[in-house]
Amino acid sequence: MMKSIRTRMTVIFVGLMMAMIAVIWGINKWYLEKYYITEKVESIEAAYDAFNWQLESNAERGISIQEAMKREQDADGNIKEGNLQKLFRDFSDKANVSMLMIDNSADSSAVYSTARDAKFLRDRMERYIFGKNHMDVKVLEENEAYTLQVTFDPWRDGSYLESWGFFSDNSTAFIMSTPLSSISESTMLSNRFLAYVGIFAVLIGGIVVYFVAGRLTVPINQLSRLSEKMSQLDFDARYEPEKGEYTEIGVLGKNMNTLSRRLRDTIGELKSVNNQLQKDIEEKTRIDEMRKEFIANVSHELKTPIALIQGYAEGLQEGMGEDKESRDYYCDVIVDEAGKMNKMVKQLLTLSSLESGSDRTVMERFDLTELIQGVINSARIMVQQAEAEVKFECSGPVWVWADEFKIEEVVTNYLSNAIHHVGGEKKIVIRITRDGDKVRVSVFNTGTPIPEEALPNLWTKFYKVDKARTREYGGTGIGLSIVKAIMDAHHESCGVENWENGVEFWFTLDGSSQ
User: Fold this and answer.
1) How would you label 179-200 residue by residue, b for 16+ Cβ within 10 Å and e otherwise?
2) Which residues contact 478 (CB under 8 A, 6 or more apart)?
3) pTM above threshold 0.85
């Protein structure tokens, strides 16, 4: 399984950090305590030198140990300390060392101690001085002035780093003692703290490196995607350099952009030729399909009237119409079918003119209310024959921008359809409504709703929901296609909606004042 550069960098970084923390932890565990003891030994030796120098300095100036160890409060509440007392206290506080000093220069010994259990330190110092010590002792350093040793105390079950002896005046004895258990505990706490900090540092460092590595791999990923697109012949993709990126990656990205551009230019002409050829083939195929569909539809629509005309004409020729009434009937059928053929041919010519764009739309401002009222008046006889009732809902003139002749044809087509399909209560309602700058005209007729699956096909040439009924009133299936072409030429909308008690056809027009 392949790993990303980002993942590998993160794993390597986390591994290195963990290794470094483990090394530091091991050094702390095995060497920190020894180092701490060494530093403590040097601190005790330095303290001895400091105390001894202060005692010698005080002796030269005639300052006794008792005076140098004074600690008193003046009238203002300020505490004043002797120089030896201050040195005594500071060393004990800073170095965490218990110290006891016995001044034998006076008639009676004076004991000074920083430890609460001064008797414990005094007893231990006396045992050391008089050679009565029975504890395990490891001498670290011994000279004429003092002895530095590690003592194990079985009663307290602990080891102590101790220094005891006399200062240079040979009358002032001292002992300095610090438990080594605190050193071991400090080492343990130090290692524990290091482990906690190390884990936190590894987590935070890993997260930081993960995101930083992600930032570094962004241009590499971009180049990978670019090469993938180039392998798929997509030469529009470009490498976009980012601020602060490495020069090497920038040069590689620039070279890939150059390669992509040259490949695109080389293939461009061939691709253009191929595209044009493909378009020509598709256009030819589309025209052939349209021609075949048109011929099939026209042939189908003309087949019935031609057959009727031929049949009745042959009947007249053979003398089947012996009386005048029969001959008139035959002639009426021939004339009627010829009229339907003539109507269809005119509609086809109109539709062809609209779809080709040769019939230019003449925009003018006119009163839509007056136009619709005129269409209703013209269709009054058809309305009476259908025993229908037409209701026109509009108050006052409604001015619109459109081709008045073509809109009249749309309204006539809608009203004619409504008359031929009206049923039930036999009511036809024409409404004009306004919505801002748009005017909506709807023609509703009661009757049987159109099947939902047939609604999208109503605007297709020669489509008929009920072919027998359409044939009965002389419909060709082209009228709604002409409506759709007229509304498309006006860049307006048209549609149809089913209601529980009928069907509504509608269209919109520009009703702005300018």
Assistant:
1) bbeebeeebeebbeebeeebee
2) 344, 347, 348, 351, 461, 462
3) no
